[in-house]
Automatic annotation (TrEMBL), chain A:
One of its GO terms (molecular function) is oxidoreductase activity. The lineage of its organism: Bacteria, Pseudomonadati, Pseudomonadota, Alphaproteobacteria, Hyphomicrobiales. Keywords: 2Fe-2S, Flavoprotein, FMN, Iron, Iron-sulfur, Metal-binding, Oxidoreductase. It comes from the Bacteria. This is Ferredoxin--NADP(+) reductase. Its cofactor is FMN. Residues 5-110 form the FAD-binding FR-type domain. InterPro entries: 2Fe-2S_ferredoxin-like_sf (IPR036010), 2Fe-2S_ferredoxin-type (IPR001041), 2Fe2S_fd_BS (IPR006058), Beta-grasp_dom_sf (IPR012675), DmmA-like_N (IPR054582), FAD-bd_FR_type (IPR017927), FNR_nucleotide-bd (IPR039261), MRET (IPR050415). Residues 234-321 form the 2Fe-2S ferredoxin-type domain. It comes from Pseudaminobacter soli (ex Li et al. 2025).
Automatic annotation (TrEMBL), chain B:
Residues 138-181 form the Dimethylamine monooxygenase subunit DmmA-like C-terminal domain. GO terms for molecular function: 2 iron, 2 sulfur cluster binding; metal ion binding; oxidoreductase activity. It comes from Pseudaminobacter soli. Pfam families: DmmA-like_C, DmmA-like_N. The keyword Iron applies. This is Uncharacterized protein. Keywords: 2Fe-2S, Flavoprotein, Iron, Iron-sulfur, Metal-binding, Oxidoreductase. Residues 5-127 form the Dimethylamine monooxygenase subunit DmmA-like N-terminal domain. The keyword Iron applies. Signal peptide: none annotated.
Length: 321, 199
């Protein structure tokens, strides 16, 4: 456990298939109380107890911050991932008790903005569901541009269009529709802030285009949870606790450390918050960095690793943990 | 150069070319030299879409030709800062994200142009500034709220209510002015010698 990750006991009140890849899950507190207040863009970490192992995956809250009777998340099924989304899709049913963390927001709106320009790709739409509800409640000025593979995979596009009409713009890949990014960025009034959530490639493209067009860094916000990737097993020595651990193929380094009974800090479990940063004491091999936190130089230096998403291949790795 | 004394005291940097295509420069007097210095290091075509607003003030015609020779898309020469400000506001009213702002010259110019930019939606941290030339201050009297321009002495007499003011480093971005507080409230007959310290 760690800072900001107070646990909440919840009960699954509904599971709704949204389309062929996405299911929505509704949670309420088991004690019937209201859930903690949150702001649009926040996520919770969901504990998945799967027989002998526990996975902890972050999901953006998509329900309205104005209503904390329940929290909802949407999970896209990933058949090649480490099984977190499959667990949610196959094993979680209404009535089941689960544990989630308190919400943490690493992708909040800057409410000083005159206008909020949102760009979503695929399942990256979920934080915007909450943010648009929050802004609509305050008559906020926003516009959402949403890219998806096909109409049927445009998760919640219909809901958003129903709520906000022409403020929602949809681009379907299979129809050859393209987001006119340069034009869009060139025509925004002063005081606009830009928010991006979607696949890594899209975030990269939008950030680069915005920077070239002269948008100051402070006005560009993005969120991309890296999912921990499966990989070859590797051995690690934890110097402070004096333990030897093995990270299995489907486990993340952070999970393996936790499984050894150690309680390292974390917040996002997706390589963005920086909480889990761990010093490397010595190593012989290669790092497979997968985070968005450390700089390029830090990745090269071999002195730090983000155990929530990054792995290692080689002879030995000693961490200060 | 200005030293940081208290948190609200503005600190200025050195102009440097920012990414983007549209660049707006606002300068007075010696501020032109800051633009010319920066121009030595700008990439090809940097000024092609630039707009320069310049108030020569007591530098007369010294800098005008040199600034024009940068061949900005638009050049405006104003007689005073007060005359240039409405133009600046108008320009900002139709501007879009991606515009970068560079302010150079006196604190009064930088502060007032910054104020206009903030009203238009700019975050101060995205604005380039460089102080050149006069240290004269714009001062707001905290008693009558009147603004006295071009203050070079400490203390100074408020040009509105006549109180003798201590000019503080306490600065308001919203007002684009330093704070002036009555220096002899206890005993109005006491009047410390005015020294010219903000030249
Ligand atoms: S827990 Fe957030 S970066 Fe690892």
């Amino acid at each position: 456990m760690s800072a900001g990750t107070r646990k909440i006991d919840v009960i699954v009140t509904d599971v709704v298939p949204v389309n062929e890849l996405v299911k929505r899950f509704h949670f309420q507190r088991t004690d019937g109380q209201l859930l903690p207040t949150f702001s649009g863009g926040a996520h919770v970490v969901v504990e998945m107890r799967d027989d002998d192992r526990t996975r902890l995956n972050p999901y953006s809250l998509m329900s309205s911050p104005l209503d904390t009777r329940d929290y909802t998340i949407s999970v896209r099924r990933d058949d090649t991932g480490r099984g977190g989304s499959l667990f949610m899709h196959q094993r979680v049913n209404p009535g089941m008790r689960m544990v989630i963390s308190s919400p943490v927001n690493l992708f909040s709106l800057d409410l000083r903005a005159r206008k909020h320009l949102m760009i979503a790709g695929g399942i990256g739409i979920t934080p915007f569901m909450a943010q648009t509800s929050q802004l609509a409640g305050d008559a906020g000025n926003f516009e959402l541009h949403y890219t998806c593979r096909t109409e049927t995979l445009a998760t919640y596009a219909d809901v958003l269009k129903g709520r906000y009409g022409r403020r929602i713009h949809l681009y379907r890949d299979d129809q050859g529709e393209r987001l006119p990014l340069e034009q869009l960025l060139a025509s925004q009034p002063l005081g606009t802030h830009l928010y991006i959530c979607g696949p890594a490639g899209m975030i990269e493209w939008v950030r680069r285009t915005a920077a070239e067009a002269g948008w100051p860094d402070d006005t560009v916000h993005f969120e991309h949870f890296a999912a921990p990737q499966p990989g070859k097993p590797f051995d690690v020595t934890l110097a402070i606790s004096g333990k030897q651990i093995r990270v299995s193929e489907q486990q993340s380094l952070l999970e393996a450390i936790e499984a050894a009974g150690i309680d390292p800090p974390y917040l996002c479990r997706g390589g963005v918050c920086g909480q889990c940063e761990t010093k490397v004491i010595s190593y012989d091999g290669n790092f497979l960095h997968n985070d968005h936190w450390l700089s390029e130089e830090e990745h090269q230096s071999g002195r730090k690793i983000m155990p929530c998403v990054s792995r290692f291949e080689g002879k030995s790795l000693v961490l200060e943990r | 150069m200005t030293a940081k004394t208290i948190l609200s005291r503005p600190v200025y940097g050195t102009l440097s070319p920012q990414p983007g295509r549209n660049h707006l420069f606002v300068a007075d007097a010696e501020g032109a030299a800051a633009i010319l210095d920066m121009a030595k290091a700008t990439p090809e075509g940097f000024f092609a879409d630039a707009h320069i607003m310049f108030v020569p003030d007591d530098t007369g015609t010294n800098y005008v030709e040199a600034v024009k020779s940068l061949q900005p898309a638009r050049f405006y020469q104003g007689p005073t800062i007060a005359a240039a400000l409405p133009r600046l506001r108008q320009t900002l009213a139709t501007a879009h994200m991606g515009l970068r702002i560079y302010l150079a010259g006196s604190e009064g110019l930088i502060g007032q142009a910054m104020q206009a930019a903030m009203e238009a939606g700019f975050d101060p941290s995205s604005i380039q500034t460089e102080h050149r030339g006069s240290l004269a201050r714009r001062v707001q009297c905290v008693h009558c709220k009147g603004i006295t321009e071009n203050v070079t002495t400490q203390p100074v007499t408020c040009s509105h209510c006549g109180l003798l003011l201590l000019v503080r480093d306490h600065y308001s971005r919203r007002l684009a002015a330093f704070q002036g507080v009555c220096i002899n409230a206890e005993d109005p007959t006491e009047s410390p010698q005015a020294e010219e310290i903000f030249r």
